[in-house]
C-alpha cells in the first residue's frame, strides 16, 4: 500500500493509490528523543541518559466539504473506513510513504495510528487530521542493534571519571604547628 502527497494538494492512499477526498492543508513530521533523567544530590540540575529516538509521527491535515456528488459526511466515512482497514491477518495496514518531507526524514513506512475530526463553528466543512506512525519492523531493529554491538566491540573504551561536581565534607583545622629549621 502506498501513501503519497501530490503537488496539487491531494493525498493518495492504497494500491494503486487513490485520491482521498478533501484538500491537504498541512503535512507535518515530528520526532522525539527518548531519555531517562535522575536528580543529582545537592545540585539543581539533572543527569540524563540518552536512549535513542521514538518512531516519528506524520500528521496530514485535510479540509472536507460537500460536493455535487457527495456530502462531507460521506467523504468522512470513506476516510474512516481507510483508518479502520486491516490486512488479511487483522493487523493495521503498513503504507510505503513517498513525499519529499518524508524522504528528508528518511521515513519509508508508516501505519495509520490516529484520526481526528472537528467542525469549526458554523462552517460547512470538517477539519480532518490523519496521523501515521513510522513503522520499523522488529527484525530490522534487532539487526541494527547487533551491528552496533559488533561496531562497539571494536572500539577503544574511554575511561570514565567521577561527576564534575562531587560534594566534599567540610574539614576544620583546629591548630597548625609550624617549625622552622632544625631536624625532624
Order of helices and strands: EEEEEEEHEHEEH
List the uncertain runs. 163-168
Q: How do the strands line up in the largest sheet? A: 3-2-1-8-9-10-7-4
Radius of gyration, whole Å: 29 Å
Total beta strands: 10
Strand content: 35-45%
The outline comes out as: globular
Please report the distance between the alpha carbons of the first and last residues: 90 Å
Structural class: alpha+beta
Mean pLDDT over all positions: 81
Residue share in helices? 10-25%
Number of helices: 3
Biggest sheet features: 8 strands, mixed
Architecture overview:
With 184 residues, the protein is α+β, with helices and mostly antiparallel strands. It is 18% helix and 38% strand. It starts with a strand and ends in a 31-residue tail after the last helix. Mean pLDDT is 81; it is low at 163-168.
Note the main attributes of this structure.
two-stranded antiparallel ribbon; alpha+beta; 3 helices
Amino acid at each position: 500500500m502506498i501513501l503519497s502527497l501530490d503537488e496539487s494538494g491531494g493525498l493518495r492512499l492504497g494500491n494503486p493509490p487513490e485520491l482521498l477526498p478533501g484538500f491537504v492543508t498541512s503535512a507535518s513530521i515530528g520526532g522525539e528523543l527518548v531519555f531517562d533523567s535522575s536528580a543529582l544530590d545537592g545540585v539543581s540540575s539533572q543527569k540524563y541518559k540518552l536512549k535513542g529516538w521514538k518512531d516519528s509521527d506524520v500528521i496530514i491535515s485535510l479540509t472536507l466539504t460537500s460536493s455535487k456528488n457527495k456530502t462531507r459526511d460521506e467523504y468522512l466515512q470513506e476516510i474512516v473506513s481507510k483508518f479502520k482497514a486491516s490486512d488479511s491477518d487483522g493487523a493495521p495496514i503498513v503504507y510505503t510513504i513517498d513525499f519529499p518531507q518524508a524522504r528528508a526524514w528518511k521515513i519509508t513506512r508508516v501505519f495509520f495510528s490516529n484520526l481526528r475530526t472537528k467542525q469549526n463553528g458554523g462552517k460547512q466543512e470538517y477539519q480532518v487530521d490523519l496521523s501515521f506512525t513510522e513503522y520499523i519492523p522488529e527484525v530490522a531493529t534487532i539487526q541494527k542493534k547487533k551491528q552496533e554491538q559488533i561496531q562497539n566491540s571494536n572500539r577503544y573504551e574511554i575511561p570514565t571519571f567521577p561527576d564534575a561536581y562531587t560534594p566534599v565534607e567540610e574539614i576544620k583545622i583546629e591548630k597548625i604547628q609550624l617549625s622552622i629549621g632544625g631536624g625532624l
